[in-house]
Structures are given as C-alpha cells and as structure tokens.
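pinning this so it doesn't scroll away 📌
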Amino acid sequence: MSQKLQLSVVDQSPMREGSSAGVALRETIQLAQAVERLGYQRYWVAEHHNLPNFAGTAPEVMIGQIAAHTQRIRVGSGGVMLPHYSALKVAETFRILDSLYPDRIDLGIGRAPGSDQVAAAALAYPSMPKDVRHFPQQVRDVINYLGDTLPDDHPFNEVAAAPNESATAPRVWLLGSRYESAFMAARMGLPFAYAHFFGMGATDGPQIVESYRQNFEPSEYLPEPLVNVGVQVLCADTEEDARRIASSRNLGRLRSVTGRANGIPSPEVSASYKYLANEWQFIQQYQRNCVDGAPEQVKAGLEKVAEGYQTTDLSVVTICYHYEDRVRSYELVAEACGLEPL
C-alpha cells in the first residue's frame, strides 16, 4: 500500500510482575503524553476484569485523566464492554467526557466480557448477566441517546441523556474480531475496529474486514466504510533486542491463557523459562500475529498488515516489561513510519 500509514495506540495498561496497578495506570497517562508528541492520532484504553496482567478496569475514568494530561490527541475506549452496563449510563458518561474535551472523545464498544465468566457474573450481581442477544439494541440505544434520536415508540423516549449542550459528540466505533461484529457494524453504518492483536482467527481477519465493507450500509453517522486494525508490535534498535524484549509479552500471554498470570514477567525470567513442546508451539503461533523487529522490519510488517486489510488506519499495541522499552518502541515506529511530531 503506497499511502502513508496513520497510526494510533491501544493501551491495555500492562502490569509488571512484582509491580502495582497504580504504577501501570500512571504509565498509561505518561505514555499517552509521549505518543501525542510523536504524532499518533488516537489513544484508546482497554477494559479488563480479573486479569492480573492488566490494570485497566474502567476506561471511562482513564479517558478523563488522559485527556486532561494531553492537548490534541483523540482519546477513547478500546473498548467499553457494553453488555455489562446500561446504554443510558454509558451515553451520559461519554457525553460528560465530550463536554469537557469537545471533539476529542471516541467511544469504542465491545461485546466480549473482557473477563472470565465468574467476573462477568460479578459485574451483573445481584442481577443476571445480560443476554448478548440484546447487544445490538444496546448499541442502537447508545447512539440514539448520544444523538437525542430515540424513536417515539421507545419505552424511554422521554429520557434525555445529559449533558446535552455540547456541539460535538463522541465518535462511536464497534470493536470486534469475528464476522458477527463486522456484519453488525456494517448494517448499522458504524466504523469497525478489528482486533488483529487478539490472535484469534487472525488468518480470517482480512476476509472479516472485507465482509464489513461489502455489507456496509451508509448511515447519517458514516457515509462510507471506515476500518481500523489493532496490531501487536514490538520495535527495538535491533532485531535481537526486539525478540528479547518481546519474550516478556509472549510468556505473559502463555501464562494468561493457562490461568497462571501474575503480571508481565521480565526478559530475564522469560529467557530462563523452559517451554513444554505444546507451549512453544502456542508461542510460535501467537508470534505470527505480531510485528516485531528493528524499525525497517516493523515498518515493512505494518505495511503488509495494511495491505492485507486494505486500510492505512492501524493501532499499535505494545506490551513489554520495562516502560522505557515501550516508549522506545513507539518512538522507533513513529520515526520509521514518518509520523509528524508536535
């Protein structure tokens, strides 16, 4: 793809083994300030529950903090797991954020629980978890609350989401990694953010995104398809350094999927870990969805992803042990891809 890449950030607020959530959350704010200076266009924060590797449980709180400590970068959720919540409450929360930081707020909405099933039940208790079949209606309700366009036959059409004096509104994105989410975004005429970094069926990713484009129905909200793709990236001055630093992310991922997560391990711990054959096979498969290496390797890898998905709009996810290595990775990617710093 000959067009210049447009790069953003998705931050899961990774927590180091032996460190604390407070440190991870403060680093999220610091990283947002750093990538704004480097020329990245959006900064989205994730929602996770009962997952020891990640500290971010409330993206709406972090969005306010990040926006307050930055000047122009768009800030949003990657995303709010809507089935846990009331559509009205989510709309009002993001209207407040938009009132404070006009034309800078993105509302990324996801359907996945962002947690295990026990934590999902705890989030709904003493009620039962919402049936995911209600998710499309919840998304429509959020959009209608934000736009003051609830239909007359809606049971709560007399309820207005406040505050409503802002001249702008949060931009709503639908997040996903499956055909169902792509089709829903297309039918609703919403932007679609595909989570290539999930590593779940990523070989089908380009087809999933293409199905979104083929089924897209223009809306008042969006006249033509808009696609963002989130990619796991680790860039260092040399390929050897990148592989060493990325080993922390890889072992952290393995521990997470096998129920042994305790924060992101150090490169030293990762280097000494003795992988079983099936564990190593998992890591090799996982790394195929990552773009790791020296700057020119990463640039080429990102361009290949962009070509595969036919979009220049990519979000970079970078997880490693040392905060300094994370900042350096974003610096090298920005320089290699020609971002224009402030």
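📌 and the second one:
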Amino acid sequence: MNDTLRDRRRRQTARDIQLAALRLSLNMGYASVTTESIASEAGISPRTFFNYYANKQSAILGEVPALRPEDACWIIHSRNPLVEDLARLLGAILDNKHLDRKVVRMMEKVWETTPELVVVFRNSLDNIALAIGDLLAQRLGPGRETEAALIAGLSIHVLSYAVRSWAADETMTTGDLLPLMRRQLHEICRLLEN
C-alpha cells in the first residue's frame, strides 16, 4: 500500500474522532452523545466531523472493513482450493483495515449497552458477505447461488471471530489473523465432512 502523509493524517483524524465517540459513549452513554460533543472531544469543528462521518453511529463504528474489487476479482477464476482462496480474500479485507486492539475492545464494551450498534455493524458485514457471495456464485456456477451465499456468510463470521480473538489476546499479532482464519475454515470443512 502506497500511503501518503495526507492519507496517514486523514486516517489518524478519523481514528481520533472514533476514539472520542467511543470514550463519550462509554462515559456518558450512547444516548447522551451528540455529533457536536464528539467533535469537541476530538478537538475538531462539527463541519470537520461531517467530512469524516455521517453520524455518531458511523463515528463509533469507524472504518468498516471493505472488499475492494481489485482485491477480489481473482477469486472467480482461481483454481486453488476454495478454502485457501477464502482465507486469502478475508486477509485482503483485513489488509485494507488498520486494526487497533484498543478500538475493538472499546467497541465491544459500547455494544454491551447499545445493541442497536451491533445491528448496524452486522449490516455492514452482511454487505461484504453479499459481495463475496456474488463472487462465489460466479466461481461455483449456475444453481449454486444459495451455497455461495452460505459460504460467504460463514466466512464473514470467521473474520469477525478472528478479529475479536486478536483483540482479546495480547500475544496475538495481526500477522496471526490470516493463519487463524485459514485454520478455522479448514476445521469447519473437516467438521462438515464428519
């Protein structure tokens, strides 16, 4: 990834806004937090806040993992085992996300008291699962749309579980995520065959 200074500054400002939103939600409760209070806590103007996030929900959730087309089109024509390609695809999604253990932990604490945020986050992951499902349907061929969607949904759960495991375990590095997801996918396949 070719990061410019501007990209790093933009990412840092977005992270500062997210941390401010999370701190306020943990200290005051989600219902009491406003976009103005988040902007003030982050040391920015409300106008700057809206250059980064549409609302307080999106500020708390931060940058949602994304599937970029250039990271995914290869999976349609790959002849590698599907489970290996899925692990690689999930790894690409995480490569696009700058993971922060502190942020993930704070988000989990906010979710404990604000279940509606879990729904919003799950919806964003469901959108990624739909995109993966479309790619897998093209790979698997006609009549396999249901299986493609089920595999995609399961894959997103593997990704989510891996990130939560990493956030909870100080000994894990981000480099451990891809092998963990690969092992989980292989183990699921093994269990399904029994």
